[in-house]
What we know:
This protein is of the alpha+beta class and 207 residues long.
Amino acid sequence: MTQGYPMELFYAPGTVALASLIALHEVELPFTATLVDFGSTQQQSKEYLQTNPKGRVPALVCDQGILSETPAILAYIAALVPERELAPRDPFAFAKWQEFNSYLASTVHVNHAHRKRGHRWAKQPTSLEDMASQVKTTMFESFALIQEHYLKGPWVMGEQYTLADGYLFKAASWLEGDGVDIATLPRIAAHFEAMKQRPAVQAALSY
């Protein structure tokens, strides 16, 4: 698969868009990174909502259209360079890969969002406080499950590095702020440190 023109990734610092930035640097295909300024609520502007009506990042513009949601973007980027095996080729292994990515998106990210973005689900101050108070527990439990059942080691899928590893790296970066000592999850901590050594991660963190 080839691209007719460079892809464009809409991102914001500190967001889960980092996983897509890492992926794009891993595949070394041409792309441009366009900042969405959350400070000025640019994500809710009429112009940006035409790109992603969800008002969130990431959003990837490619020659076939626009993709949002990290699992979809990672699968697409990996498919552009199948020879790199950045996603499993075997159908069952690919499904397990997407199972993991979906868990990060549907459970881990939501757990994390309960700390600062509880207003998405509730309005009463006591409800917001109650949700935030559970974040340390739910995040630790989620990462304990990842460490036990998903992280094959040294990478998510075992010996083969895939784009899911960048996604896990970003999610693990939330642990400290959520009150979880990553040292209590030694295999997660080892993965996090190994990821920091990858040139693609270093490049993505420079934005």
